Amino acid sequence: MAYKTNKELPDRVKDNLPRGAQTIYRKAYNNAEKQYRDPKKRRGDASLTEVSNKVAWSAVKKEYKKKGDKWVKK
After folding, report:
1. In order of start, what are the domains of the chain with their CATH numbers?
2. Side-chain-side CA neighbours of residue 28 (13 Å)
3. Helix, strand or coil for residue 35?
4. Contact, 22 vs 14, CB < 8 A?
5. Closest to 42 in 3D by CA, of 27, 56, 32, 57
6. Which pLDDT tens digit goes with each residue over 49-73?
7. Helix (H) or strand (E) holding 64
């Protein structure tokens, strides 16, 4: 399920990440959905949603870090 806007993101993402990080998450998630649509491109038996979430969070963590209970730009 591709996200067209940050408003469509799951609450766990919207409630925890600042706007810039939400955009990174959304773009990475959407890209991963396209890239890993074919199950042969995924490791093990991971679902497309699982893989897309992992890719998205990895992208966020490249530019943001958690400080206390908030995500801040590195």
Report:
1. 9-73 (1.10.1740.70)
2. 20
3. helix
4. yes
5. 32
6. 999 999 999 999 999 999 999 999 9
7. strand 64-67
pLDDT in tens, 3-51: 999 999 999 999 999 999 999 999 999 999 999 999 989 988 899 999 9
HSE-up (13 A, CA, CB side) for residue 72: 6
Cα 68 to Cα 57: distance, rounded to the nearest angstrom: 17
Instruction: Compute φ and ψ for 6, nearest 5 degrees.
Output: -65, -25
* CA-closest candidate to residue 55, choices 30, 21, 23, 32: 32
Contacts 24+ apart (CB under 8 A), 63-68: 63/20, 63/21, 63/24, 64/17, 64/18, 64/20, 64/21, 64/24
Please state whether the predicted TM-score (pTM) of the whole model is above 0.90: yes
